[in-house]
User: Fold this.
Amino acid sequence: MFDSGTIAPKWLEDMKNNNQNITTPTGSFKLGKSSDVNNRPDCPQTPLNGTGICTILFDCPQVFSLLSDFDVYLRYFCPLNE
Assistant:
């Protein structure tokens, strides 16, 4: 669970390290908060089959049901800051 009261997908909870980071094939990343983000690049492909702006996952809980597992999440993952 996170600040907004929405429950994160179980696969995401399972992927978090003890320090609340996740490890992807491109490195280890902190699961941050909006206040941590200085740069929000364009997202060429979203889970809704459109374009968008990369954002903190927890600021977009409406996509949780579309991210069925870690592999699907990685298709849309954008590193922000760290």
Q: What stands out?
A: The chain has one domain: 10-76. Residues 38 and 81 are 7 Å apart (CA to CA).
